[in-house]
Amino acid sequence: MGRLFRIDALFIYAVLYLLFLYAPVLLLPLFSFNDSIYIAFPLKGFTLAWYREMAGNGPLLQALENSLKLALSVSVICTVLGLLAAKGLTRPYLPGKRLITGLLLLPLLVPVLILGIGLLVIARQIFEIPLSLLTVGAGHVLLCLPFSTLVLVSRLEGFDRSLEEASLDLGESAWRTFWRITVPLALPGIVASLLLSFTISFDEFVLAFFLAGNEATLPMFIFSQLRFPNKLPGVLALGSLILLFSFVAVALSEWLRRRDVPAK
Fold this sequence. Notes:
Blueprint: H1 2-32, H2 49-55, H3 58-89, H4 97-105, H5 112-126, H6 133-156, H7 161-169, H8 174-185, H9 187-203, H10 206-211, H11 218-225, H12 232-258
Helix pairs in contact: 1-12, 2-12, 3-6, 3-9, 3-11, 6-9, 7-8, 9-12
């Protein structure tokens, strides 16, 4: 009886915990189908008008294109750099390994607001670089690279080094061994890194706010629309699609990261 009570209490706690996490977010898709410009209960009816309005909004589509180009570029760059960093960090012998690891992961501890102000000062006051998607991309690479490195390190830590040694003993070069042995075995981690970096860059707002200049990304466009109540349902429709995409991408990346990782 006591064991059953403990299980029920844990189940209730889990349900309340999940409700606390996701109930506010799930209101987005609910109100995106509401036939009213006001975000309030009771709901007036079901409509797809806000999704049709979203599809015909030119500035919104341009901001979406900017964010997609940015996220794709950042995910590829971070995964390549993260793979090389993970390859080095998982070597059996690396002088100063702990220090290097700490320095690589340090951006995770810096508040994004501070990071954005620092990058803005460096770009405009020191190097006089005009703000654009390129400066946003540089900031996103700095933000996403530690996440990419962590994902790939966890993948390469369970790597069987004897496979690389066998390839080298059979006469393959170091590059062909890396390309034909290391990359295929690390592929789940690579895909997970691509998806995770893409999601972080696509959703990021603070760095884009400081570094984008006149080229708005999608989060910036959504923020600008919040001042107009009649535009809010369209923003909710877009937010619902982004929420769905982010959930699928993060779930897929985590599944790929965990797949085939040997149990310790």
